[in-house]
Write a structure and sequence with these properties.
Chain A: This is Biotin-dependent carboxyltransferase family protein. Chain A: It holds the Pfam family CT_A_B. The structure holds 2 protein chains of 2 kinds. By secondary structure, chain A is mainly beta. Chain A has 3 helices and 20 strands. Chain A folds into 2 domains: 148 residues, no CATH class; 110 residues, Cyclophilin-like (Cyclophilin, Beta Barrel). Helix content of chain A is 7%, strand content 31%. Chain B is an alpha+beta fold. Chain B is elongated, with a radius of gyration of 18 Å. Classes of the chains: A mainly beta, B alpha+beta.
């Protein structure tokens, strides 16, 4: 059987693909890899369709043993990768023979490493996706040592090797934001947002929770539940914003002051607790 | 009605009423625009998400502005009946708050026809409108840390059923054995926006 044995995980290792969009009206979050370009690249590097499932490993620390000969690739932040304790690069295809052990170290910067394997992780899909959704508990359980992950049939040849080196993350993130739809609940929303914010340890796949100068509302009262998109910056009563990521709820009852532009989301997926970020609001 | 921009690829349509919201939702769906990815109803809003770079948002707006919202396109709602054992922990509280007996609470709850306005909170959790006035009551002061799956409750203008065990602050009237959400089923959520729902008392 083409399969991987999970030997060890870091703090959290989850099967992820591109998620299950289009089901928000049933209360189902989009989910999927948080750093989408990283998973897409990892898949291309092993000859997969970009839609194949891989493993999203928080703070690295993932070790797997191959039951079959396969091609793997690790993307995301720079990290030490070894096969039977011999060092290899990231962002490049690596051949692993049956019985060999691949280990991903702990990245010095960033948060989430992605492992793709030729054929893709072929656990049973749920609602059209193999992604683990931590908010609603849909999809495969978080990985544990001893798990056996089935692999699909390998198909293509690797592409994208010339694409890029591992991204270097800046010390301070600048995050472009489009104001609205509820920026009118705040006085001078652009000025309020354009200050330094710190990513807190309560952040997860549901949202990035930020600390800083609380956003004071100009308008009191409650907002009836309304739809949310990934990247929405919601402001609960505390005034401390939450940037919703892929496992966000489908509706919420607090005003959304602005929405992060999609191209800035991968960097947010890699923002560690303690990272400083500054929103750059655009009208 | 207001059209509020929502990031690069979405718009939030703010409506005057629940019925206008519902009409906007069915109009956008009936337009069958291939680049509309999500149509997410809220209590007074419809969020429309489009494929990036497409013209679907302006097409959706044209469809809504051309529509007769008093007579929206038929959405072919399903009729669902849920059998409920009215033995909820808050049945007496609801009765006392309404100033009626527990039996009268059950009569009111089973006598009304409800509509799924929107979902949220958890997969398959449907917010049903149509709750009789005496049953429109506030949430519990302290939410329960665990509400069993199938619990039938009410809060504000809504009634609904918890699809699975979760924390929750709704006042609980009883419970149903019916499965509300099954991700392996062809139709995963029993209740989808627009569906009509009735509750039936079972002993």
């Amino acid at each position: 059987m083409r399969a991987l044995d999970v030997v060890a995980t870091g703090p959290s290792a989850l099967v992820q693909d591109l998620g299950r969009p289009g089901l928000a009206h049933l209360g189902v979050p989009p989910s999927g890899a948080l750093d989408v370009p990283a998973l897409r690249l990892a898949n291309r590097l092993v000859g997969n369709d970009e839609t194949c499932a891989g493993i999203e490993a928080l703070f690295g620390g993932l070790t797997v043993r191959a039951r079959t000969s396969c091609t793997v690739a690790v993307t995301g932040p720079p990290v030490r990768v070894t096969v039977d304790e011999r060092a290899h690069g990231t962002h490049t295809p690596i051949h692993v023979s049956a019985g060999q052990t691949l280990a991903i170290g702990t990245p010095d910067t960033g948060l989430r490493c992605y492992l793709a394997v030729s054929g893709g992780v072929a656990v049973e899909p749920e609602l059209g996706s193999r992604s683990r959704d931590v908010l609603s508990g849909i999809g495969p359980e978080p990985l544990e040592p001893g798990n056996v992950l089935p692999l699909g049939a390998p198909r293509g040849t690797p592409t994208g090797e010339d694409e890029l080196a591992a991204p270097r993350l800046p010390a301070e993130l600048v995050v472009p934001v489009l104001l609205g739809p509820r920026d009118d609940w705040f006085d001078e929303p652009a000025r309020l947002l354009a200050v330094p914010w710190t990513v807190t340890p309560e952040s997860n796949r549901v949202g990035l929770r930020l600390d800083g100068a609380p956003l004071r509302r100009a308008r009191e009262g409650e907002l009836a539940s309304e739809g949310l998109v990934t990247g929405a910056i919601q402001v609960p009563s505390s005034g401390l914003p939450v940037v919703f990521l892929a496992d966000h709820p489908t509706t919420g009852g607090y005003p959304v002051i602005g929405v992060v532009v999609p191209s800035a989301l991968p960097a947010l997926a890699q923002a560690r607790p303690g990272t400083t970020l500054r929103f750059r609001p655009q009208a | 009605m207001r059209w509020l921009p929502y990031g690069t690829d979405a718009v939030l349509v703010e409506c005057e009423s629940l019925s206008e919201m519902s009409a906007v939702r069915t109009t956008v769906i009936a337009a069958r625009l291939p680049d509309v990815l999500e149509v997410v109803p809220g209590a007074r809003t419809v969020l429309v998400v489009a494929r990036p770079g497409s013209t679907a948002l302006s097409e959706a707006r044209e469809a809504v502005e051309a529509a007769d919202l008093a007579n929206p396109p038929g959405a072919d709602p399903r009729a669902v009946e849920l059998a409920v054992r009215y033995d909820g922990e808050d049945l007496q509280l609801v009765a006392e708050t309404a100033g009626i007996s527990a039996d009268e609470v059950v009569e009111l709850h089973t006598g009304a026809e409800y509509t799924v306005a929107f979902t949220g909170f958890a997969p398959g959790f449907a917010y049903l409108t149509g709750l009789p006035e005496p049953l429109r009551q506030s949430r519990l002061d302290t939410p329960r840390t665990k509400v069993p799956a199938g619990s039938v409750g009410l809060a504000g203008e809504f009634t609904g059923v918890y699809p699975r065990s979760s924390p929750g602050g709704w006042r609980l009237l009883g419970h149903t054995e019916t499965v509300l959400f099954d991700s392996r089923a062809e139709r995963p959520a029993l209740l989808a926006p627009g569906d009509r729902v009735r509750f039936r008392r079972t002993r």
